[in-house]
Amino acid sequence: MPDGALDSAMRADEAGSEEDLYEDLHGSGHHYSHPGGGGEQLAINELLSDGSVVCAEALWDHVTMDDQELGFKAGDVIEVMDATNREWWWGRVADGEGWFPASFVRLRVNQDEPADDETPRAGDSGAGDGGPEAQNSKDQMRTNVINEILSTERDYIKHLRDICEGYLRQCRKRADMFSEEQLRTIFGNIEDIYRCQKAFVRALEQKFNRERPHLSELGACFLEHQADFQIYSEYCNNHPNACVELSRLTKLSKYVYFFEACRLLQKMIDISLDGFLLTPVQKICKYPLQLAELLKYTHPQHRDFKDVEAALHAMKNVARLINERKRRLENIDKIAQWQSSIEDWEGEDLLVRSSELIYSGELTRVTQPQAKSQQRMFFLFDHQLIYCKKDLLRRDVLYYKGRLDIDGLEVVDLEDGKDRDLHVSIKNAFRLHCGTTGESHLLCTRKPEQKQRWLKAFAREREQVRLDQETGFSITELQRKQAMLNASKQQATGKPKTIGRPCYLTRQKHPALPSSRPQPQVLVLAEPRRKPSTFWHSISRLAPFRK
User: Is 546 helix (H, G, I), strand (E, B) or coil?
Assistant: First the structure.
């Protein structure tokens, strides 16, 4: 293969598809298997019928507002209890059960294997290193990783330069074809990223030890520039909009010819513009992987060890923050759709103040002055608590009954016994008290563990609000309006049912299946933490579960 063709192939691989990005982040299936095939489904149900415990790990958060669905966080381990339906499985996490989308999880395979992401600690003695030869080999591996980091950074800078100078600069010359708003949608803040990355590469070059590369100290560079990497959040959040706009424009031949002319003029490799625009998303994902590899070959006594360890933690946090912001922004459509399904909604839209469902469930609300008890469905969002009444005949229909401003409330855990305010006996109760107005709300659960989950949920809500304030996360007015517009359109046309309900000839084992399947995030920016396990030894022998 000629050098130029080889270079093109290598770069094409680097700017690969989003499916390739998924493989980069999650490996090639050494520990997990992706569900979905008919063979896997049969094997799972055979194991379940034999009484085996089948577990899966959540790849994405599943936020639900339906009490028949199972909510969980990325990284949670779910016990699969029924997999007869290909799209939706019945499972249990903690002490909750419900339907969940099979595409949101991956099955555990070879669970007796240790986790492969263990890293050395500064206190390790290194007694098992095997002597000077082993250390020389480790130094060489560290040199290889450092060279790889620098090489990919240089290639990445060229990609960014090609985008900014080859495409964006030329587009700005054609005001007849592109508005500034369109260019902002397509390219996002790519120029800001380009400036930051040039400074980062210069810092890496200065820390590179050319005579003894394995002694290079790159960890400090990542720590010094970690705040700059936050700008990737804006880019990654905008990337789906860029894809939509590009897809719309490239339906017109004049835009196809124009983008191709830009590529040829800049002498860029044979990748379309959307391939180039994916590169920053891929890059921010690869930093934790590269740093983990660098730490693996860094001796605990190396001067760079603590900085690399700290940098790995910092870059994982950056990726986690970007992933969280992306998930939150993608979730606002679902919140808007939920609000549009509530009957008799009053007041401002939920998205004006909230963007995250923290917890939901049924509570008994005790009201004054007659201490009247009411069964209500409560939905805890950031900043506010919504409560609704179920329809007497159609239990899936909710009527809006009110909301509470959580920002001004104090959560008080109450002991079982006589309530001094309402003079009634209470059990599994807590009170929401407003210090400024003196108003209070008495709520009760059926079981003690349910009360504890609610108390923890209120604590999580306060922590979420604090983190949003620290990181500056908010929903723009445009995003809110667009989400509400999408919800109203979907309600007008009717919600499409992408998954049919299974036909049961006998009494149903579980409540009816959800009518539609949620879509997982297209871009996964941080791999959920793998948890070691010691059971299900025989599953590795099942061929359908192998990658």
Answer: coil
* Nearest one of 409, 430, 408 to 419, comparing CA atoms: 430
Residue 244: what pLDDT? 85
Instruction: Tell me which amino acid residue 512 is.
Output: A
Q: Is the whole-model pTM more than 0.90?
A: no
Over residues 62-98, the pLDDT tens digits come to 777 776 888 888 778 899 988 888 888 999 987 788 8
Length of the chain: 547
Segments of the chain scoring below 50 in pLDDT: 1-34, 36, 110-119, 121-128, 495-508, 520-547
CA distances from 215 to 41, 136, 137, 313, 487 (A): 51, 12, 14, 21, 56
Measured in Å, how far apart are the chain's first and last C-alpha atoms?
30
The 3-state DSSP class for residue 227 equals: coil
The helix-helix angle for 273-296 and 18-26 (nearest 10°) equals: 10
Instruction: Name the burial class of residue 216, with classes exposed (0-12), middle (13-18) and buried (19+) by CB atoms within 10 angstroms of its CB.
Output: buried
Predicted local confidence at residue 498, as pLDDT: 35
d(CA 382, CA 293): 38
Q: CB–CB of 87/517 below 8 Å?
A: yes
Backbone angles phi and psi of 55, in degrees to 5: -120, 150
**What 3-state DSSP class applies to 377?**
strand
Residue with tokens 């855990």: 413
Gap between the Cα atoms of 100 and 503, Å rounded: 18
Residue 469, pLDDT score: 86
Helix, strand, coil % over all residues of the chain, rounded to 5: 50, 15, 35
Distances (CA, A) of 181 to 169, 186, 243, 402: 15, 9, 15, 39
Could you tell me the domains of the chain? 31-116+510-545 (2.30.30.40), 136-336 (1.20.900.10), 350-493 (2.30.29.30)
